[in-house]
Amino acid sequence: MLAAIRTSNHGVEVIDRGAYARVLVPVRCVVTRGAIEEVLGRAFRFPGDLEAVMPAFKGFLRISEQRVEWRCERL
Predict the structure, then answer these.
(1) How many other CB atoms are there within 10 angstroms of residue 16's CB atom?
(2) Which of 29, 50, 53, 65 is the least buried, fewest Cβ under 10 Å from its Cβ?
(3) What are the pLDDT digits (tens) for 28-58?
């Protein structure tokens, strides 16, 4: 999923915390189901599959069947 985030957003910074990776993107981070599936080579469903690999986030989240968007400010 990180590869899909990197290809879909500018200014991605990853901080390796050992047990998890903190992903930082300026202002807004958007990733589509299609971009994730292309990287993984298999089906990926929102929100269930996302919740399994991303148990926490900072800011505000908007999610649909096709894409997810995180922002620092309210959507």
Answers:
(1) 8
(2) 65
(3) 999 999 999 999 999 999 989 998 888 788 8
Q: Read off the amino acid at residue 62.
A: R
Tens of pLDDT, residue by residue over 10-23, are 999 999 999 888 99
From the CB of residue 1, how many other CB atoms can be counted at a distance below 10 Å? Answer: 16
Phi first, then psi: what are they for 67, rounded to 5°? -155, 165
Query: Which range of residues forms the domain containing residue 38?
Result: 2-71
On the 0-12 / 13-18 / 19+ scale of CB atoms within 10 A, 64 is exposed
CATH number of 66's domain: 3.90.56.10
Domain count, the chain: 1
